[in-house]
Amino acid sequence: MTESARPDDGDRVPLEPPSAADSVSAALGSAARRAGLDPSKHSSTGAAVWAAMGGWRGILESVLPSLAFVVLFTVTIDPETRQGNLPLSLGVSVGLALVFTIARLLAKSPPSAAIGGLVATGAAALLTLFTGRGQDNFVFGFFTNGAYGAAFLVSVLVGWPLIGLIAGYLLGEGTSWRADKRRRRVYTWLSLGWAALFFARLVVQLPLYFAGDVTALGTLKIIMGLPLFAPMVAVTWLAVRALSPRRES
Prior knowledge:
With 249 residues, this protein is mainly α. It has one domain (21-31, 43-244). The chain is 71% helix and 0% strand. The chain contains 11 helices and no strands. It has helices spanning 20-34, 45-53, 55-75, 86-106, 112-131, 139-157, 162-170, 181-211, 214-223, 226-243, 245-248.
């Protein structure tokens, strides 16, 4: 290209930096895609939910460490102290999380979920051994549920529901969904539904924590985990797919 043919500097249109909403949407959407929620890969709701749970491996990684702790703690409870064998219960729980992490590393599969579970399980075990109270093994879960619930609720209050931000990225439409009142209303209700799920866990489980009922607390933690998470993913997936511009066309 000759010098005269080059575009003049005054004709160049500077690229606008991405807005904060677009950046948040991209981050959340990427996380959802890494978790298995990719509209381009799943044609059925069942497949999407199964991918979001991580398949059999994800289910075992999510359930077994907590289940092992609850069972071992319950069967080793001393009638006098009403406390189970914490070193044994916590050791098996952390050991299972470690096995899952090593298995992912050996299989060269993304280890982030297993490593995150191992770190959380290990930190909870250290806290529990320090306090000597079995119910403290679930403390970090309370903070996690509170943080997620607050994030979904605040996103609705400020008019940027998280479900809309995630769906906008996955569907490749950015934040254009905000101009559609119907879709914005649905994304708002879906985000409120997720907030309600996280807060419901706190409402049900915190009284058991303060009562020191480790068996009931651990059991309800498992019941209110994947068994409630899967239906919420299915409802969200169906609603987002139904409102997709590609689906409507």
